[in-house]
Amino acid sequence: QHVDKKWVSSSSEIIAFRKALLNPVTANQFKRFVSLKGDLLENGVLFWQEVQKYKDLCHSHCDDATVQKKITAIIDCFINSAVPPALQIDIPTEQAKKILERRKELGPYIFREAQMTIFALLFKFWAKFCKFRSNLASDKILLALERKKGKKMRKKEG
User: Fold this and answer.
1) Which end of the chain lies in a sparser environment, N or C, as judged by fewer CB atoms within 10 Å?
2) Taking the domain 11-157, which CATH number applies?
3) Cα(136)–Cα(61) distance, rounded to whole angstroms?
4) Per the database record, which ranges form the RGS domain (predicted)?
5) Rounded (10°) CA dihedral 119, 124, 125, 130
């Protein structure tokens, strides 16, 4: 579909991508695939998944202390990491600051903007990933990605 001179994805593609991120096998394959495209993209997949787990936790009505621990874990891992760079995912610094300011709010939406940013960023690689894996048996996908990663590493070294 063509809207305002930008290509807009169909909702079925977006739903398929969301389902893929929720499927451990496909998500792992996709995570390996995007790790070859950029340093923080792999973390983006992990962040998206952890935020989904966090939202599930919120909706399960568990105690506030558990919810707060999950918020802290996500922030310490992806938003304000002790390992440089502090921001381990590809979101604007303003979004990261907003999350840090709201870290004591216990709602399912604290990470919403960041999760949407990451989803949109990762979605750009979805069609390429689908094309890549369409030529391979599912048990050969990770092997093929490992080979690609090896070639990329050798290029860096050589």
Assistant:
1) C
2) 1.10.167.10
3) 42
4) 16-122
5) 100
